[in-house]
Design goal:
By secondary structure, the protein is α/β, with parallel strands linked by helices. It has 4 domains: about 5-195, Rossmann fold (3-Layer(aba) Sandwich), CATH 3.40.50.720; about 205-400, N-(1-d-carboxylethyl)-l-norvaline Dehydrogenase, domain 2; about 415-605, 2-enoyl-CoA Hydratase, Chain A, domain 1, CATH 3.90.226.10; about 615-665, Orthogonal Bundle (Lyase 2-enoyl-coa Hydratase, Chain  A, domain 2), CATH 1.10.12.10. Helices cover about 45% and strands about 10% of the residues. It contains 27 helices and 18 strands. Strands 3-2-1-4-5-6-7-8 form an 8-stranded mixed β-sheet, with helices on both faces. A 7-stranded mixed β-sheet has the order 9-10-11-12-13-15-18, sandwiched between helices. Strand 7 (about 165-170), helix 7 and strand 8 (about 190-195) form a beta-alpha-beta unit. Helix 8 packs antiparallel against helix 13. It starts with 8 loop residues before the first strand and ends in a 10-residue tail after the last helix. The structure holds coenzyme A. Coenzyme A binds near residues 480 and 547. Coenzyme A binds near residues 441, 477, 480, 523 and 547.
Length: about 675
């Protein structure tokens, strides 16, 4: 049993914005939760908010249990005694606690006092985590006798909805503590990044802080207007909000305080005066009714007017370069990996691409050049290009155009059809279902293009393995229901036949097909997935045959392939109820072959495809046929088929190559001849 399995009781201290959300997340995940704060009224307020939020989740079908069941797991506790110490009740709760998460105000003295008390009262195995965003974990841990079990666990607002948790290692935090904290965050349904060193701002606030502060200096120095910055951020970089729009939205006071704390703790930076002025004037943004933009009333949000035609007036490379520079600093100082930095930015800030992905796209040389110019124009010393970037330029690791930058790239060719994209990355090819706005619902056109693509790739000698996936937030939500209006049974018979032909084409293609499933794989979407050879699902996948809910049954092989994969009674249950099941359950049933975190789905599919691409293609095809056909006949016919295919392979050059390479102790190079 992993240590995380022993965690039963979680105490969240501080019932404010973050604390109540964290308590809610823990209760949803099934933990017994103590929620502590200094006053009963704070707790009442927090419980009301939790109830409201749970109801919302329930209405959206995002809660597996009732609101009451989840709420009943949370016990509120007043932790401040009249003498200024802690209550006995709080001490008893800590005595039962396996994992504490502190989310009290950002004052080191308060936190140290709490951690000391928690250390004295919690069992020795308990991990004490802090949700601080600006204080050193190491100094908080110093108040305890168990610094190896004190860790940073940084949630984003609001915790129930934001998918990211930064796990921060203090100077003395043990690897086991980090591992357990990561595992717990996963049980909370969150994705994690590990911050290996206790640097101010961790990943997200550092990258965001640098990005926003520099953009602000650019405006302060008159190099661009705030609308030009925001238009470029939104319409060219594709960020969810402009820089100043975001500052207003999340609160200029919050940004100012976090940024000042990072600076005080030694982050090299020239603070932007505009932010300070707004802060001092109380123009905090939306909540004050006034910030960089004006709002109708305090707390009343209205999207500021950011004209699209201003986009690009500021070079987008200049806008993103300071964030890249910060990311380079994090990598060079071994604070975080490139993958974690990009993941943090995508999940924590909702950026459509990772900061390093932008860098590779624009070119590292262009980033360095932009930093130099910016430094000259603004005088901000911290814009000196990081040594890592300079080294990359020197080594020719310039990004996509050079085939390598922060990441490696292969020569790719993309063919965009109306409803699918074929992406050839020799020796593999991707077929991407591309009707994202319709969750890749399978229209007749899409089925036709998919069939043609399979035919073309079957012929293409340079493609050895095919990966099938969906664009946007789903693999495919099934047959396009809109095409079913006003059709006759004979139309549907033809549709079903054509669809079945497609699934057979996949089944008998001579090349392996890997299906990478994320989001929904429903109805016809699942039927296509089941016709591939190997299915990899991301943790967020939901699979099902919901046809029954529409009054019909699966029509593209679902009633046949599903029972072959999961057994007849489970198949019946799925088809009779029309229920969707999550990836983990699909894995247990044998419907998918592995489950991976969402951000690793493509990578895993690609890695498996590349591995198969090194195998002898004729033997792969023979194995696929022997299995597919053998499964549908008696063992005697199957064995006969196997023997025939086995012996036939001995007429191929690849067998000679395989055996020779083995004898010569080298890696074989199969040619498919
Ligand atoms: N056929 C046609 N369009 C579909 C579709 C399908 N099977 N599944 C989803 N879409 C469309 C929706 O109509 C919507 O289009 P719109 O924005 O123009 O209204 C868009 O895709 C997004 O779907 P939406 O329902 O808004 O997303 P959601 O996250 O709220 O719900 C599902 C997702 C998958 C649960 C829901 O769309 C659904 O139940 N789809 C039907 C699944 C089904 O029965 N498939 C079997 C068909 S044989």
């Amino acid at each position: 049993m992993a240590p995380v399995d022993n965690i039963r009781t979680i105490t969240v201290v501080g019932a404010g914005t973050m604390g109540h959300g964290i308590a809610e997340v823990a209760a949803i995940a099934g933990y017994k939760v103590y929620l502590a704060d200094i006053k009963k009224e704070f707790l009442d307020n927090a419980l009301q908010k939790i109830e409201w939020s749970l109801k919302k989740l329930y209405e959206k079908g995002m809660l597996r249990e009732t609101v009451e069941t989840v709420l009943s797991r949370i016990t509120p506790i007043v932790n401040l005694a009249e003498d200024g110490g802690y209550t006995e009740e709080f001490g008893r709760a800590l005595g039962e606690t396996d994992f504490m998460i502190e989310a009290i105000p950002e004052r080191l003295d308060l936190k140290q006092k709490l951690f000391k008390y928690a250390d004295e009262n919690a069992p020795s195995h308990a991990i004490l985590a802090t949700n601080t965003s600006s204080l050193p974990i190491t100094e908080i841990a110093a108040a305890t006798s168990r610094p190896e079990r004190v860790v940073g666990m940084h949630f984003f607002n609001p915790p129930v909805l934001m998918p990211l948790v930064e796990v921060i290692k203090g100077e003395k935090t043990s690897d086991a503590t980090v591992e357990t904290t990561v595992a717990l965050a996963k049980r909370f349904g969150k994705q994690t990044v590990v911050v290996r060193k206790d640097v101010p701002g961790f990943i997200v606030n550092r990258v965001l802080g640098r990005f926003m502060n520099t953009a602000c200096i650019v405006v302060e120095k008159g190099l661009a207007s705030k609308e030009e910055v925001d238009a470029t951020a939104k319409y060219i970089l594709g960020l969810p909000m402009g820089v100043f729009e975001l500052a207003d939205y999340s609160g200029i006071d919050v940004f100012y305080l976090v940024f000042t704390a990072m600076k005080e703790r030694g982050m090299k930076t020239t603070p932007c005066n505009l932010i300070k002025e707004k802060y001092e004037a109380g123009h905090y943004g939306v909540k004050a009714g006034k910030g960089f933009y004006d709002y109708p009333a305090p707390g009343k949000y209205q999207r500021p007017n950011i004209p699209k035609d201003l986009a690009g007036k500021l070079d987008p490379v200049k806008l993103v370069a300071p964030a890249v520079n910060e990311a380079a600093w994090l990598i060079r100082n071994e604070v975080a990996t490139r993958e974690d930095i990009d993941k943090a930015v995508k999940l924590g800030l909702n950026w459509p691409k990772g900061v390093l992905e932008y860098a590779d796209e624009y070119g590292i040389d262009a980033i360095v050049e932009a930093l130099r110019k910016l430094k000259e124009e603004t005088g901000a010393e911290e814009l000196e290009p990081d040594p890592l970037l300079l080294r990359m330029v020197e080594e020719g690791r310039l990004g996509r155009k050079a085939g390598k930058g922060f990441y490696e790239y292969h020569e790719v060719q993309e063919i965009e059809k109306e409803t699918i994209i074929i992406r050839i990355e020799k020796p593999i090819a991707w077929i991407i279902l591309n009707r994202p706005k319709k969750l890749n619902a399978l229209s007749p056109k899409l089925l036709k293009e998919l069939g043609e693509a399979l035919d073309e790739l079957e012929e293409n000698k340079e493609v050895k393995v095919i990966i099938l996936k969906g664009a946007g937030r789903a693999f495919s939500a099934g047959a396009d229901v809109t095409a079913f209006a006003g059709v006759t049974p004979i139309d549907i018979l033809r549709f079903s036949r054509r669809f079945q032909e497609l699934t057979l084409k996949m089944q008998f293609l001579t090349k392996p097909i890997i299906v990478a499933i994320h989001g929904y794989a429903l109805g016809g979407g699942l039927e296509i997935a089941m016709s591939g050879d190997i299915r990899i699902a991301s943790e967020d996948a939901m699979l099902g045959q919901p046809e029954i809910n529409l009054g019909f049954i699966p029509g593209a092989g679902g009633t046949q392939r599903l029972p072959r994969l999961v057994g007849r009674s489970r198949a019946k249950e799925l088809i009779f109820t029309g229920d969707m099941i999550p990836a983990g359950e699909a894995y247990r049933l044998g419907l998918v072959d592995r489950v991976v975190p969402p951000e690793r789905l493509d990578q895993e599919a690609r890695a498996l495809a590349l591995k198969l691409a090194e195998k002898p293609p004729l033997a792969l095809a023979a194995a696929k046929y022997a299995i597919e056909m053998g499964m549908e006949t008696s063992i005697w016919t199957g064995l006969e088929l196997e023997a025939s295919l086995f012996s036939l392979l001995f007429s191929t050059e690849d067998v000679i190559e395989g055996v020779t390479a083995f004898l010569e102790k080298r890696k074989p190079k199969f040619k498919g001849r």
